[in-house]
Predict the structure of 3-hydroxyisobutyryl-CoA hydrolase.
Amino acid sequence: MQSTGTPAATATNVVSKVYGPIGHIELDRPAKLNALTLQMLTELTRVLKLWAKDPAISLVLLTGRGERAFCAGGDIADFHRAVTTGAHQEFIDLLSMEFDLDYLVSTYPKPLITLAHGITMGGGVGLASHAPVRLVTQSATMGMPEAKIGYTPDVGGSHLLANTPGYFGEYFAMSAASFTGADAVYLGFADVIVNDTFAENILDELDEFVGLSAGEIISAIEVLHGAPESYALELSQGWVDHAFSADSPQEVLERLEKMVHPAAQQAAQLILANSPSSITSAFYTVRQARTEQDLRSALDRELRMAEHLMHLPDLAEGIRAQVIDKDRNPRWSPASISDVDQQALRSLAEGTEL
């Protein structure tokens, strides 16, 4: 397919081209797994708003360049720099812009198709899983891994997690475990799993969908190019719901530790390796998101929680241990969930903090 427009400057690591009625945006930072920077967020917002008003464009496609990732999330190095140099407000402003972009994606007035492949984590989920048409490959790796670095699910992740079957939301938020693209439809993070041939040639396949609504496009792609989804997670629904339906993070751990199911024991180990403050935050943000069922409210809540956690020691320490020094041995403070101020984080999630 030949472009009828001039590509946007690649200095922003975002490439936008127009092919007749189709606009194509590519994240172009493959060496960094398309991790999002301020410049990328700014350009994505600019192009999406411009094309939303352009009557010549009927359909928009968002993909990531490179075989390894659609988008691994935000740039963790920038995050660490902000929390260790006192630039907290600067990074909160960046997060606010990112969250507004995610909301723009969710309310886009035209069929906006996202294709998640490879690593799709954190901020990548924010772009891929709120769109009107959400495609994913079977081999994609998705998740909200924030509790591993002393942070909390954001970019609307708490809203998505709250809408998973049963209490899988609390499980994935607290454990920071990942799941495959084959599980994404079951969990509500995607609409259709597509075969590899279609994914590799998606731009050449979109002409026949021009003029259709988002719902019609989803149905057509599922029939013509869909791949089997997995229901393997259903086998874990029983023990997950029993443990994670508890009223507090401490009770979740207590229930897990009493269970003999090997997967439950593994879940407990994953959770205990994460920041106690983060797993507490994750639990209450997902729980509150379930009661409200509103993406904008979830994003606002996540921003409040982010601003709080940025001033705690765990975020800088988690990034150091997982990303910078890579010793995988974070020293959390507090080190035990029993020492976390549960009421403070719960009130923050509920918006009732003093």
Summary: Residues 1-354 form a domain with the 2-enoyl-CoA Hydratase; Chain A, domain 1 fold (CATH 3.90.226.10).
